[in-house]
Structures are given as structure tokens and as C-alpha cells.
Amino acid sequence: MSAEIGREALAAQAGPGSDTGSATETAALDLLMPMHLQLQPTGHIAHAGPSLQKLRPDTPLVGRRFLEVFELKRPSGLTRVSDLARAEGGRLKLAFREAPRTGLVGLVAPYPPDRGLIVNLSFGFNIIEAVKDHELTSADFAATDLAVEMLYLVEAKTAALHEWKALNQRLQGAMTVAERQASSDMLTGLANRRAMEEVLTRLTRAKASFGLMNLDLDFFKSVNDTQGHAAGDHVLRRVADILRAETRSADVVVRAGGDEFVLIFAGLSNPERLARLGRRIIARLEEPIPFEGDVCRISGSIGLTVSDFYTATDPEEMMQHADTALYASKRGGRGRVTVYSPDLHGGGPGQDN
């Protein structure tokens, strides 16, 4: 039966004074129960509360059969609206037959007596989904409906969660920055001693092969003394750029302090190859560095050792041996690379590889 035929049947059955309620009563019910339905004994919907009709904005509910619009889930097996009144406690569980299939719970009672039924519906636990699907607001619920309080609580919870997530992201970002700063040199952005110790400890525990290079700048004090600390800082930043450019992304470049740098090469322990790299770095360092219309001139001395030289790797011992090789390079005339060997402890110049 079409909605129009349904309306005609309602009109034919309703004599004078037999309507489901006066306009004043209906307005009151709409205010108190905006999700209610008034049903004729035939099962046709005689009136739908404004919030319930809002759930089907393109399909008027009035004139349609109740059981054609809704699927009754509990009590099950009922085929006539007249049987609803005999439902235990008048309680119903139902859902729309057409999408969105919003779930509802309801309470049914005679209205007016012996003339029809009134069904008051609510979303129950489906309220959050329903509000999202149908864009409902607090104005769509009775002022005394606990659903309104629930909506406020959900909104407050959502706002609190959003703020908590934003705060957590800011804290995580701050922690990341703090950790990076704690392990980085502020002037050059290179790793600092703390990071160097962590890397050496990790490589030692893993029994990995690696090379260790100690680099000290030659003539850097002269730059500071004659051209100022601003020039010195500029040179240090330029040195950091050169070391990054000449090493692999997996290598660790450390500013150990002042004009001293340490380079750690995980997986690279060939002394000849490292010595060639050291000479290439020194050649780059000896290129004039422009600064404010002038140039700064430096060089570098390098001492290196590799984990393969040792039966058991000891980071502190390797650092001492790299220092020994470095000072051998200094004594040998600077601007050179020296590979550690036990002979260097005699104090003579090291062998340039």
C-alpha cells in the first residue's frame, strides 16, 4: 500500500473526535517525546515526532505501515501492530529496514485508549553512531533526556582526548628535540661525546668491526687569535660540512670538543682505505675558507685505528691509541694521517699511510 493510500485509509477510519489526539496534545508529545510515533490500529503511522522524522528527511513516515518501516527484533515473530501492546513490559528492540539501519529501543502503550498505540523510541547505546549518521544536536532531544547529558559528556571527552593528543604530540616533539640536543653539538650539529660513547659501546657489545679516526685541526688557534671567534665558529661549521660530505650516512661524525673531531666507521676496518679517506679529508680542509672578505686557512692531523687490531675491543683503549697516532702525525709535520702501531709509543714520528 502506498503512503497516499495509507493516509486515505486513516482518514476513512477516523470519524469526528476519533483522531489520535488534539493538536495541543500532539504538540505537547512532540516537545516531551520528539522520538515518538502514534499508530492506528491498522498499523499505519498517524504521527511521527520531529526528531524521528528527521532520521528519514526524504521519506514522510506518516501513512506508512509501522512494520514496513521498522524491523522488529524483540519481541520476535510479531506480524501485527496490535500484538505490540502485549509485548513484555511494552519494551521493543527494532531497527530501520532501510539504510542507515539505525538501531532503536522503544516503549509501547495504548493511546488513546482502545484507539491506537503510542511508541516512544530512543537510540540507547547507538546514540553516538546515530548523532554522527543523522547530524543530530541537543535540540533534537527532550530537555530531560539523559541522551543530552551523554552527548555533552561525549563532546567533553572528545575535546579532552583531542587536547591530550595535541599535548602528547608536543611533549613527544619536545622530548625528541631534547634528546637530539643532548646528543648533538649545538654549534655544528654533529654528534657529541655522549653520542660517541653510546655508539662505541653498542659496536663493542655487538663485536662489530669498525674504524676509529681522531682528527685535530691544525692552525685553528691562529684563526681565532687573528680573525676572531666568529671566524673560528664559521670554520668549525665548514669543517662539519666537509666531514659530512666525505663520510657515509651510516658513519658517525663527532665534535669531541674545541677543534677535535672523532669519526666512527661501522663495518669499515681496512686501515689503507681509511687512510686514503683521511688524506682526502685533509686536502678538503686545506682549501681556503672565505669569511667576510678574508680567507681562513687550516689543515688537519689524523690518527686512526681499527677494531681488527685487537683481540678484545676496548673503546677507551682504541681512543687512546687513536690519540697516540694523532700526536705522531703532529710530530711528523702535521697535515698527515698516521695508523696506530705499538712502535708509536717510543715517541718518534708515526708512519704516514
From TrEMBL:
InterPro entries: DGC-Regulatory_Protein (IPR052163), GGDEF_dom (IPR000160), Nucleotide_cyclase (IPR029787), Rev_trsase/Diguanyl_cyclase (IPR043128). It comes from the Bacteria. Residues 208-342 form the GGDEF domain. This is Diguanylate cyclase (GGDEF) domain-containing protein.
